[in-house]
Specification:
Length: about 130
């Protein structure tokens, strides 16, 4: 398989659990964040592949040097998740999954370019990796 990576954004509890699943399955991934503090914390945890973007400045959304396999955005706030969808959609035509606990923003995410909106109360979405 080509050297493609999964992008994960939104490091709430569900997002962190998903990262542990990726690590266990030894899948290549990077974490997308807009927080220098979060990037520093991730690196302390041993996650060196971090993309830091200014989510308010589209000019900072430089496409990564690798090919993207899938994008998984774990909703922490509607505004930030929307910006992450827009950012990642500008980088790839591959599937973008938004994992949310809310029913309301489904149409918003779709309009911004998300491929799939997954409603999950628990945030456990490891099943999405079953065919990966």
């Amino acid at each position: 398989m080509e050297d493609k990576r999964i992008i994960v954004a939104g490091l709430n509890e569900a997002g962190q659990s998903f990262i542990r699943t990726l690590q266990f399955r030894e899948l290549k991934f990077v974490v997308l964040t807009n927080s220098k503090q979060e990037a520093k914390l991730l690196r302390k945890q041993g996650i060196m592949d971090v993309i830091l973007v200014n989510s308010n400045n589209r000019n900072s959304w430089i496409p990564p040097a690798f090919r993207i396999r899938d994008v998984f955005i774990f909703e922490s706030s509607l505004a930030l998740s929307c910006r992450f969808v827009q950012c990642c959609r500008s980088w790839t035509s591959e599937p973008i999954y938004v994992i949310t606990q809310q029913w309301n923003p489904r149409a918003i995410y779709k309009a911004l370019g998300a491929s799939h909106i997954v409603f999950s109360q628990t945030g456990e979405v490891g099943f999405l990796l079953n065919n990966k």
